[in-house]
Amino acid sequence: MDHLVIVPIVLPLLAGAAMVLLGERRRNAKAALGLVSTLALLVVAVVLLQLANSPADEGPPALRVYLLGNWPSLFGIVLVADRLAAMMLVLTSLLGLAALVFSFARWHRAGIHFHPLVQFQLMGLNGAFLTGDLFNLFVFFEVMLAASYGLAMHGSGTARVRAGLHYIAINLTASLLFLIGVSLIYAVAGTLNMADLATRIPRIASQDRALLEAGAAVLGVAFLIKAAMWPLGFWLPTTYAVASAPSAALLSILSKVGVYAVLRLWLLLFGEGAGDVAGFGGTWLLAGGLATIAFGSIAVLATQDMSRLAGACVLVSSGTLLAAIGTGKVAVTGGALLYLASSVLAIGAFFLLIELIERGREVGADVLAVTREAFGEGEEEEPEEEVGVAIPATMAILGMSFMGCALVLAGMPPLSGFLAKFAMLAPLLPLAAAGGGEGGVPAASWALIAALILSGLATVVAMIRTGINTFWAATDGVVPRVGLIEIAPVALLLSLCVGLTVGAGPAMDYMQATAWSLHAPQDYVRAVLSAPRTGEGGG
Question: How many domains does the chain have?
Answer without folding.
Answer: 1
